[in-house]
Write a structure and sequence with these properties.
The protein is α/β, with parallel strands linked by helices and about 240 residues long. It has a single domain (about 1-235), classed as P-loop containing nucleotide triphosphate hydrolases (Rossmann fold), CATH 3.40.50. The protein is about 35% helix and about 25% strand. The chain contains 9 helices and 11 strands. Strands 3, 6, 7, 8, 9, 10 and 11 form a 7-stranded mixed sheet that branches. It is globular and about 50 Å long. Bound molecules: adenosine-5'-triphosphate and magnesium ion. Magnesium ion binds near residues 41, 42, 84 and 159. One of its GO terms (molecular function) is ATP hydrolysis activity. This is ATP-binding cassette domain-containing protein.
């Protein structure tokens, strides 16, 4: 759905966090980015969702230049961000989180009904009238993903979606993300390890200090090698 060319983004003038990043998200598939802490994974997802303004480069959406779009424009086009760190609305209940984000029309493929979401995340079913801040960390994480799925995204930006989840729930989340392309939605997911990404897709991008690699194969060790080379370069005394 999106094509990113030579994107440079930073929080301060002359201090780029992402440098000339290129990424092709036109295939309806799961696209994964792995990289160490601070590499810029969240920065990239926030930029694509319209929360940050690039200093250079272009983001194309089906031939349209959307480099400087706002979050509501990205959302209207079908881009949903499930942010890292469970950013819920503290004054809304679980049920309200899932009803305030109404599914967009004309996107029947990736629509998840509330019932379906509660099947995927049964822990939320017993918490429908609890407020965001009354949920456990894992429950908040589930609700963050459920809220994004309920908007029937064409592109789901999932920032470390399995962080802090018990292995069984993490596997459920992985299974839902894997199904999304069959429902017509593209996924861009960030993960801390190649192993976690390999469970979702065999082709991953490696992000190291703002530089994004071409897609590399996860299963044959290419991605691990890129990460290891980077760590050796930045910390030559590491084992
Ligand atoms: N709001 C901000 N203001 C200034 N600098 C920021 C801000 N958010 C992130 N940064 C910096 O940008 C860089 C990339 O951060 P980012 O959160 O994108 O990394 P990440 O790859 O998502 O890391 P993690 O794996 O820890 O989530 C880091 O050096 C970070 O300190
Ligand atoms: Mg992050």
């Amino acid at each position: 759905m999106l094509q990113v060319s030579d994107l440079t983004v930073g929080y301060h003038r002359d201090d780029a966090v992402l440098r000339e990043v290129c990424l092709d998200l036109t295939a309806v598939a799961v696209h994964a980015i792995v990289g160490p802490n601070g590499a810029g994974k969240s920065t990239l997802l926030h930029t694509l969702a319209g929360h940050l303004r690039p200093t250079a480069g272009t983001v194309w959406c089906e031939g349209r230049d959307v480099t400087r779009w706002r979050p509501h424009q990205a959302a209207r086009t079908g881009v949903a961000l499930a942010p890292q760190g469970r950013r819920l609305w503290p004054s809304l209940t679980v049920a309200e989180h899932l009803t305030v984000t109404r599914p967009a029309r004309h996107r029947p493929g990736s629509t998840f009904s509330v019932d379906e979401l509660l099947e995927v995340f049964p822990a939320l079913a017993g918490r429908l009238h609890h407020h965001g801040h009354q949920l456990s960390g894992g429950e908040q994480q589930m609700l963050t993903i459920a809220r994004a799925l309920h908007t029937a995204p064409r592109l789901l930006l999932a920032d470390e979606p399995t962080e802090g989840l018990a292995p069984t729930v993490a596997r459920q989340v992985t299974a839902v993300l894997q199904q999304l392309p069959q429902r017509g939605a593209t996924v861009l997911v960030t993960l801390p390890h190649v192993r976690a990404a390999a469970a979702l897709t065999d082709t991953v991008h490696v992000l190291t200090t703002g530089h994004l690699s071409h897609p590399v194969t996860a299963s044959d060790g290419q991605a691990e090698r890129l990460l290891r080379d980077h760590l050796t370069l930045t910390n030559p005394h590491a084992e």
